[in-house]
Amino acid sequence: MGAAVGEAVLGKKIGNRAMVWGAFGGLLPDFDVLARFFTDPMTALAFHRGFMHSILFSIIMAFVLGYLVERLYETGLYRRKRYKAAVAFFIFSIYILLFLGLRMILSRSGAAPPGFIVGGILIGLALGWFLWSSYLSKDLNEVYATRKEWVWLFFLSIFTHPILDCFTVFGTQLLAPFSDYRVSWDNISVVDPGYTVPLFLGVLIASFISRNNKARRIANWTGIALSSAYMLFTFYHKNQFNKIFEASLKKEGIQYKRYMSGPTILNNFLWLGVAEGDSAYYHGYYSFFDKKPVIKKFTTLPKHHERIEHLKDKREIKILKWFSKNYYNVIVRRDGHLQLNDLRYGSFEEELKDENDYIFKFILTEKNGQLEVEESRGGGKINGEALGKYFDRILGKNNG
Q1: Is the pLDDT of residue 384 over 80?
Q2: Overall domain count for the chain
Q3: pLDDT digits 0-9 by tens, 104-144
Q4: What is the domain extent for residue 292?
Q5: Is the pTM of this model over 0.85?
Q6: Rounded distance between C-alpha atoms, residue 171 and residue 169, angstroms
Q7: Edge-to-edge strand ranges of the sheet holding 328-332
């Protein structure tokens, strides 16, 4: 989206540079994940999608980057070999971070496809060749753009990032640092090819077309239009699922206080609903390819919040409750430790029979009056058979 926005703002005037700077602006908010290297896990969890995903940050950085990039091209620094090498290294580093981040997300969700690493290496080699042939080995043209145009490019490319994040379950602190409320509309997965692919293809095609050719703008805007249409389509799915979820709860005679719903990873057809009762949560899946518009089975997940009642004043517990929006349960692991599970993300296994079936889970350990919290990434290995079973469930083929 950052690249597409950059192209829309300045592509006609400065060509592919607009995509590159737009992509940088679009990636900038997620640099907050680097906090995990400088602070404790709970602080890093609270910081991600915090201030660097806020409206205020978008405004401040738009003016800062607008000024710096204007100076970069005025001084001619961008033509020096050392600068170009540093830029190429930075772009390649970002690719590696994105690859590792995506691998982490897919692994945590139990959906890392076979050959993922090999594919990542091949794409990395292609990126290296592209950087050499189209950037490092070429003399660069002059760039003419006003500071106002740069500011506008960076504001839109940065701000569209947290806005997109609001559509996911994770939530985004748009009003930070004035409020830690996380906006989340829960209508699309954090990884959904249906949204990303049209944008990617639009930018890719446009990048090979002359900036003065009208077809370039058509390709870019077509990608934006198709991805935006898909986003609207996900709201329709959410509305339909909510109706089915409510009707299914009523049919089963389940009393509840509130509920949340969201799609599972990599698609918008298999949805999860979690309803909160007095002492338990009720967890159910529905695919829009199922034969009947009803959730056939609910999994009852006892809350057991009393297991951490004595820890309620601990900073770590307050952060976990806030992060999960109080959609959590507490189980006792086989090793005797407590495990707090964020139920909003469901599981690769529908019934949640095992401690490793949960996607977002945190192991709690008390030592000498201190509480240690570790985000667990443990879980079953995902192979072709498991992926086949998952996609069969999306298509409604194994819904009993």
Answers
A1: no
A2: 2
A3: 766 665 556 667 888 888 999 999 998 888 888 888 788 88
A4: 234-400
A5: yes
A6: 6
A7: 328-332, 338-347, 358-367, 370-376
